[in-house]
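From the methods appendix. Each design record in this collection lists the tokenized structure first, followed by the designed amino acid sequence. Records were kept in a plain field format so they could be parsed without special tools. The example shown here is representative of the layout used throughout.

RECORD:
FOLD TOKENS (142 positions):
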């Protein structure tokens, strides 16, 4: 019997394209490194046998900086296939264009895209508009 818990947050990369002063992951301290699908599976498999989270958040740094992101998301769903486990990709969205396969991986694996918003400067808002257009062209919501 697995324990039901509210939330798990796992970092698939430690790099980030932002250097926010208040970063809770210390990305502003240039902490680097990333998971591979193999290391992700190795680290999370023991937990998959023990816990069933209501929410599983794939984070970073900035997760879209990990070139293996789509494979990591698929491994996450393999480990927690139950529909009641809500998997979310939390990203600032800046590099979603590097992962065109996300347009299939997210809906096929019932993964929610959550785009974090960090401030309201005009340049930033314009970039967010571009990101929203990309996501809309994929036919998914964020």
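DESIGN:
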């Amino acid at each position: 019997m697995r324990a039901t818990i509210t939330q798990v947050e796992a970092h698939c990369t430690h790099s980030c394209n932002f250097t926010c002063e208040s970063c809770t992951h210390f990305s502003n301290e240039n902490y680097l490194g990333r998971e591979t699908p193999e290391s992700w599976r190795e680290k999370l498999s023991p937990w998959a046998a023990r816990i069933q989270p209501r929410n599983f958040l794939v984070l970073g740094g900035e997760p879209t900086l990990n070139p293996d992101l789509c494979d990591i998301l698929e491994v996450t769903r393999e480990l927690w296939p139950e529909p009641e486990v809500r998997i979310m990709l939390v990203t600032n969205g800046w590099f979603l264009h590097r992962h065109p396969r996300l347009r299939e991986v997210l809906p096929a694996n019932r993964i929610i895209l959550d785009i974090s918003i960090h401030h309201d400067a005009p340049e930033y808002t314009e970039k967010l508009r571009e990101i929203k257009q990309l996501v809309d062209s994929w036919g998914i919501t964020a």
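APPENDIX NOTE: The chain has four helices and four strands.
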